[in-house]
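Structure tokens please, single chain.
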Amino acid sequence: MLKKTHAFLSAITAAVLLCSCGAKGDSSSKTESSSAAEATTTKATVTLPQESSSADESAASNEQSSITPLMWKITTPEGNEMTLIGSMHALTDECYPLPDRIMTAYESADVVACEFDVIENGADLASQLTLMNESMYEDKAENIALHLSKETCDGLTGFFAHYGYNMDIMKHYKPWMLDMLCEQLISAEGGLDTQKGIDMHIVQKAHDDGKEIFEAESFELQMGIFTGLSDDVYDVLLSAYTVDNLETLKKNLTDTYEVWKKGDISATEAYFTQADEETYGALTDKQKAALDEYNQALLYERNKGMAECADKLLKEHKNTFFMVGLAHFIGEGGIIDLLEQKGYKAELI
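Here you go.
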């Protein structure tokens, strides 16, 4: 069930890619030591996420989008209501303006709940600088070759070269950052924009409208999870990023997007339970264990905390718009399953 849901992706990866632009084109002539020095000097460079103008322009039209992402509704005996929607953190212009079924639920909500406030955290320069600095190894002699297999490193070298980036610089970033960078590159090539993610759009609107925003998690919690995963996990995740695997990666991204916007529950459940062999090939027992570690940390443990937050909001607030990554709602151990175990009845709407 490995499906990434990096809500904070756009807040940091665009800056890193811009920092690495010196590695393009003529960068192959640079020495490793000069590349490492250049990488070190770019650590404090940050590009903050901006509200998407194209999404705003699209929203100004009268024609609604035809997307139908999965949504659920829970009503308590006391009359408190919650609309739950599975988000996707990178979308396209065709998703906007959002349809009435989404916006009516948003407008009637007293509280907007999300994974974390991507707008507020994106504007926090101090935290962005800290994060950028933590994304690289402090010791210039340390690099990913000491943490990942040679085969994975070789694949990444070709992958980054395909996009014009020099591995002499990229290798000084830690595996968790490289994973985000790779996903950002694939998303951009697939036409999906993290600045157009529905979570960023809705949270920005909530700020503009003065609605209460409730963070089901926090930026620090998510970062702690990603930075705390083992090298074995990242060796499997990053092994997928090779030139030979590009078409499969782009297809997986397109499939995820199509499943999200159509909102067919049966198709979604089937998609999120399919084997990872299509992306990673035949997996060893060690690799399967690493992916299990990833799913446990990224999905199932977080689902428990998100379900507790939903339970709290259902008891304390009259009307809540609850929006987190789609994968968190699906199947056994998902938020819907956990809330139903607490006695709530979730109606698919």
